[in-house]
Design goal:
Blueprint lengths: L29 H7 L4 H13 L6 H14 L9 H15 L10 H6 L4 H19 L1 H13 L3 H15 L6 H20 L13 H18 L5 H10 L8 H26 L8 H14 L4 H22 L7 H14 L5 H6 L2 H22 L2 H8 L7 H14 L7 H18 L4 H10 L14 H5 L6 H29 L4
Helix pairs in contact: 3-4, 4-17, 6-11, 6-14, 6-15, 6-17, 7-8, 7-13, 8-10, 8-12, 9-10, 10-12, 11-20, 12-23, 14-15, 17-20, 18-20, 19-20, 20-21
Pfam families: Na_sulph_symp
Keywords: Membrane, Plastid, Plastid inner membrane, Transmembrane, Transmembrane helix
GO molecular function: transmembrane transporter activity
Length: 506
């Protein structure tokens, strides 16, 4: 019987300094010698080292650059725009970049107005409720149950993660919490341990590369389906009221979820041909799901209560949107659900509310961005900007094509969907309104294109943790993002339009 032979080699010992070959020491370049002669350069280098390694506060160079931007732009408004409106825009601009400066341009009431908005609190309370899926383990149990029943093939496994995202997005308004917080801890060990698909072993193409891209598409697409699927959805709903479009939770669901399901159906198939996995059958996924469910045991009391509260909140969101005598608003329903979770001990005030950094970070940034965007609207900035892109001579429905394509593509310029929406969504609403677009159609079509977070490794906060797993090279990610974008835009301007026509929106 042939046996494997292993080639043995003499261990290589490190050379001593005397034995090692002499290294040629290159003299400093002319550029470096010139820089070293600049007076004070030594102190600048010491300051740079102190700022990077010891200073715990903001990045001082970045701060100074933003201050310079403000000083340069502050007093040079373009023609046709008032100085006050321009200064609000400059403040908004540097806030989007990452800095909110203290100015006297806004009154205290205006500064705090965003924090009293119902949509802000809806997202915050939904974040608190979402933490119940993690603390009780219900989120993982739901995922393993779905894997158990439809995860025996590669396509079935892909659809399992799509279904998980679709369900969790109903009540978890953070795509990062869903994708990186709940599903990533399931996906990574499944790929590496279950399928031995590991970039470190050179086997990422077995199934891992395909599955990572499916999850990214599912994560951003499921956010479109529900008002609470992403924090930016509530912001868009708030902006839509300015053009006469009012969407409750239920109205958003029946007009956006069916079109949103389409990419969840064809996305895994498209990616299957773009980046075909080597494995076609996945019995390991079903076995892993069975093992994990056995390990978790029968559903506990807290999980059962969490499931009931989840169903109660969803039903009340739907009912409150369609029946006038229901005494709760969408935000009121979220408060009710949170109260039940606190009273039953599923959530702890200190651990899950006070210490919920993600929810409070979202509250602060969301409130500031909404306040500044509202002030820009009140001062007429968006209307002025819309006049710079005049589509009034273009047929209304062609204007929708143009606006949705530009808005989708412009996501390449942003590392956050929320920042993208707050900066550009109101402007494109105004452009379409001036072009005579039926806004019931235009607003929904524009909102639909926020599934653009899949485009690159940086266009959504969910993407970097998956990109860092090294399953998908950057070039491949960009290529697949481009192909999926083209298909999504074609579907939007054909099938989705047809569905909205049946609903009477145009």
């Amino acid at each position: 019987m042939p046996s494997l032979s292993i080639k043995s080699e003499e261990p290589t010992l490190p050379l001593s300094e005397s034995d090692s070959p002499a290294k040629e020491v290159k003299p400093p370049s002319l550029w470096k010698r010139t820089i070293d002669k600049i007076p004070g350069i030594t102190y600048l280098r010491k300051f740079n080292d102190w700022e990077k390694n010891k200073w715990p506060g903001i990045k001082i160079p970045t701060f100074l650059i933003l201050v310079i931007i403000v000083l340069v732009l502050w007093w040079i408004p373009p023609s046709g725009l008032g100085i006050h409106t321009w200064q609000v825009f400059v403040t908004f601009l540097v806030t989007i970049i990452g800095f909110c400066t203290v100015t006297n341009i806004l009154t205290t009431d205006q500064i705090l107005s965003g924090f009293g908005n119902d949509t802000v609190w809806l997202i915050v309370f939904a974040c608190f409720i979402a933490s119940g899926f993690v603390t009780t383990g219900l989120g993982k149990r739901l995922c393993f149950i779905i894997l158990k029943y439809i995860g025996s093939t590669t396509l079935g496994l892909a659809y399992a993660f799509c279904i998980c995202e679709f369900i969790l997005a109903m009540a978890i308004p953070s795509s990062t919490a869903r994708g990186a917080g709940i599903l990533l801890p399931i996906i990574e060990p499944l790929l590496k341990e279950g399928f031995q698909s590991d970039p470190a072993l050179g086997t990422e193409r077995r199934i891992g590369s395909y599955m990572i891209m499916v999850e990214i598409v599912a994560n951003t697409t499921s956010s479109v389906c529900w008002l609470t699927g992403g924090a930016w959805n509530a912001m868009m709903a708030n902006f839509m009221t300015d053009v006469g479009v009012h969407l409750s939770w239920g109205q958003w669901a029946y007009s956006m979820a069916p079109p949103g399901i389409l990419p969840l159906i064809y996305g895994p198939i498209v990616l299957y041909f773009l980046y075909p996995p080597e494995i076609k059958k996945t019995p390991e996924a079903k076995q892993l799901a069975n093992d994990k469910l056995a390990e978790m045991g029968r559903i506990g009391v807290f999980e059962a209560v969490m499931a009931l509260v989840f169903l109660m909140v969803i039903i009340l969101w739907i009912v409150s949107s369609s029946i006038a005598f229901v005494p709760y608003s969408t935000t009121g329903v979220a408060i009710l659900g949170l109260s039940v979770l606190l009273m039953t001990g599923i959530l702890d005030v200190k651990k899950d509310i006070v210490a919920n950094k993600g929810a409070w970070d979202l509250f602060l940034w969301f409130g500031v961005l909404l306040m500044l965007a509202t002030e820009l609207k009140e001062t007429g900035f968006f209307e002025w900007f819309a006049t710079l892109i005049d589509l009034s001579s273009v047929p209304a429905y062609l204007s929708v094509w143009i606006c949705t394509a530009i808005f989708y593509i412009s996501q390449y310029l942003f590392a956050s969907i929320t920042a993208h929406v707050s900066a550009m969504f109101p402007v494109f609403l105004q452009i379409m309104q001036r072009a005579g677009v039926p806004m019931q159609l235009g607003a929904r079509a524009l909102a639909y294109t926020t599934l653009s977070g899949h485009l690159t490794q940086y266009t959504s906060s969910t993407n970097p943790p998956y990109f860092n797993l090294k399953y998908v090279p950057m070039g491949r990610w960009w290529l697949q993002g481009l192909v999926v974008m083209i298909i999504n835009l074609i579907v939007l301007n054909t099938i989705c339009w047809g569905y909205w026509w049946l609903l009477g929106f145009w």
